[in-house]
Design goal:
The chain has 329 residues and is mostly beta strands. It is built from no helices and 35 strands. The chain is 0% helix and 55% strand.
Length: 329
């Protein structure tokens, strides 16, 4: 490591540079108001194990943590983790270049006094097949503090196809209070993967992905509005989410319905499924999959803003379950 900070107070590093270091700077224990301004941290070719190297890393030492970290207009190049935060009161990063990261550009465990990542470039290369742009690690207890992710460009290299687990932004469980706004996310498997309640996801755009947005069953009371989606939005049927107006594919719902014996069709409403109505003027694609051994012949479906109907060629002799997928455009 180039620098290890312990017990500093109002320390500011301006126009400093490190190169050929496994760790650029480690902030250990209690450090109050640490600022990196216009600094360069370059991994270089020193040693092996680049995937776990860090540009700036904050760790707990002696049972105490740092209280305020600010990273402004800095270059962090070639590390496994450009910025790695374990437990800090306040953290802000703005105008930074988190470049050629190998594993994750920014990893955050606990910032319970609020913070932000703004107006930065985050670029990650293919190496581990688990790359993440910004990773808000899931935690065991509920944390509600305002953290803003605003105006960033987050991109993964395209030399391999993105695999499941490669997320532009990952929001783990119990991370309430996040606001993700006006970001561009490119070439990840999932642009944003939200598994926590009370998250605002607004005015973002993406391209080159498999899924634009994934919302888990734990992501209740989230707000999704003003986004330009280039792919499907996968939402767990148990997640209660407010959808505003979004461009592109609005939502993809997956659920199970029962075809009653002797009936060749089944109709259900979004309300009966515990889901909000689809946006007005949507176009729909409906597919059904028979999950029993009964031969029902062809299956087709249609949907509206309030309901969905599935029809089969041959009515079953007994109650039969169908897996249904509805995509609204």
């Amino acid at each position: 490591e180039a620098w290890r900070l312990t017990g500093t107070w109002n320390a500011e590093f301006r126009k400093c540079e490190t190169i050929n270091c496994f760790h650029g700077a480690i902030i250990a224990g209690r450090n109050v108001h640490t600022v990196f301004n216009t600094c360069n941290f370059v991994r270089g070719a020193t040693g092996s194990g680049t995937g776990i190297s860090t540009g700036i890393q904050q760790v707990i030492a002696g049972g105490v943590r740092a209280e305020d970290i600010q990273v402004k207009n800095c270059l962090l190049f070639g590390f496994g983790y450009a910025l790695d935060i374990a437990n800090v009161l306040v953290m802000h990063a703005e105008g930074c270049d988190f470049d050629f990261c190998v594993n994750t550009c920014v990893r955050i465990v606990i910032v319970d006094g609020g913070g932000s990542i703004k107006s930065s470039w985050l670029y990650i290369v293919d190496a581990t097949n688990t790359e993440t742009g910004i990773d808000f690690i899931g935690i065991g207890s509920d944390l509600q503090s305002k953290f803003i992710v605003f105006g960033n460009y987050i991109e993964k290299a395209t030399n391999t196809s993105p695999l499941v687990g490669m997320d532009g932004i990952f929001v783990g469980v119990n991370r309430r209070g996040l606001e993700i706004d006006k970001n561009t996310i490119v070439n990840f498997h999932t642009s944003a993967n939200i598994t926590s309640p009370n998250v605002k996801y607004t005015n973002n755009k993406d391209k080159g992905m498999t899924t634009s947005l994934s919302i888990s069953e734990f992501a209740n009371r989230c707000y999704v509005h003003g986004n330009e989606f280039a792919g499907p939005v996968n939402r767990h049927p148990n997640a209660s989410v407010i959808f505003g107006t979004n461009e592109g594919v609005t939502t993809k719902e997956v659920f199970t319905v029962t075809l009653v014996a002797g009936n060749a069709s089944v109709t259900t409403t979004w309300a009966a499924l515990g889901l909000p109505n689809a946006p007005a003027n949507s176009s729909f694609s409906v597919s059904a999959n028979n999950i029993t051994t009964t031969n029902l012949g062809w299956m087709r479906g249609r949907a509206s803003a309030t309901s969905v109907t599935v029809e089969v060629e041959t009515a079953p002799a007994g109650n039969t379950q169908l897996d249904v997928t509805v995509t609204a455009f």
